[in-house]
Amino acid sequence: MAGEAFGEDPFDLRSALVLLRRRKWWVIAASLLVGVAAFGMASRQTPVYSASAELLLTPPRATAGIGAATSQDVATELVLMRAAATQERIREHLGWLPAVSVSAGSGPGVAVVTATSDDADGVAEAANAYAEAYIVVRRDMRVEDLTTLTSSLVAQMTELDRRITDIDATLAALAPDDPRRGAVGSERSQLEAQRLAYASEVERTRFQAGLVGDSVAEILSSAWPATVPISPTPKRDAAAGAFVGLLLGIGAVILVSRLDDRIQTSDEVERIAGAPVLGLIPVAPEGQVSGRQRLAMSEAHSAAAEAFRSLRTALQFLGLERKLQVVLVTSANPAEGKTATVANLGAALADAGQRVVVIGADLRHPRLGRYFGSEEEVGFTSVLLGDTTLEASLQAVSEHPGLAMLGAGPSAPNPSELLGSAGAANLIAELRGYFDTIIIDSPPVLPVSDALVLSQHADATVVVAQSERTTQRSLRRAMTLLHQVGSPVIGAVVNRADAEAMYGYGYGYGYRYGDQTPRKVSVARRLLRRTPA
Hints:
Helix content is 50%, strand content 15%.
């Protein structure tokens, strides 16, 4: 168990959900802040409009070898539309170059010309001007290509005519029975066939040149003046900003929680202590009443009083399996609520009909008497030193019949030695004969060794940790020291526990404050199951 108790913090999905629930307002605030900032920035930006014109490249009705544009043809045309040479010719044709982008359309052979500007009317004019100019420029470019091809074919036909004329002259010079006439005649036939092919190609290219005006492209749909800007979009930007803020908030919560070593949840206490959390004590009333520290049990219907009654029940169930007559209450560091826990737990047990004595064994800083309005000049050390009897040192608490207090007594120069002495053991043994339960308020574990010494006289040790104050490191170190001396740690108490953070995760201490009727969820079965043998 010790290995599990003192291991590293296993951060899993459940832990993250617990942290996010506890810090949900951080996440909400970050989301709202970034969302509002994004909305404000978008609202101040200049609106940008967009308009598009669609072109059908080489329509299917074209004939004579000019077919419908394929996807490869469209990709080629898009490259040409973006080419610097094409744009320069468009600039020359229009006298200006519209700022547009071109892309493939949704249909076959369709190209889209899109203009973007802060001028709602100007974007349509730019898109249409570019589309119309492209048709003219591209037609001229195709005509030029076909003209160049025709000129090249005509030149080759002229060369063939010259060669055929030379062959005719050769044939005329040969005798009719000359065997060379067959080869020369065959060559002339090949040249004639080649010339006919060139002539056919010339006719075809001339025909294509005549159709270029209708076959380059046509405008499927013209661009219209924009009415709604494409950016900024304050609502969409605000939603995106809120989402980013949500992620940032979640990240911040997790990061801070990993850097913050303070106890946040009861799960952390259980993991470190290696024992169950016996009680979750909410923020109890503070201040003084009639010159003494306010006792939570004095307000019977308060949430804190009900929490101490639940702690009492938990101890009683644990006492079914093992003797828990002497209970030592300590903490890792000072000011974590151990003395208040001792005083209120004693009152709760006495209210249940038990004979209870609370002992102020924190000889260095005695504070137990403040909760009962009693002085501690006479007490534990007085009896040990033989200055007075046990009967004379015990002080009854009138508000809680059955409860007595044994104060710390005069300060001692050697508290650890005094608490570990045989006299201290005999005094506690004598008290066992008078009281059903003995609760010892000891010093914190880390500053001094008094609690480690006292734990040898106890049947059970309860460690108090304060939410948002006790660090995991200090609690882990305190538990290590207690286990090293064999202290019988049976559980922990979380003081000043936040109801929403602590109660919602498996312990069920809830309250309805309207009618002050407590609602408890029994922890007996869980405690009996998890208590170490």
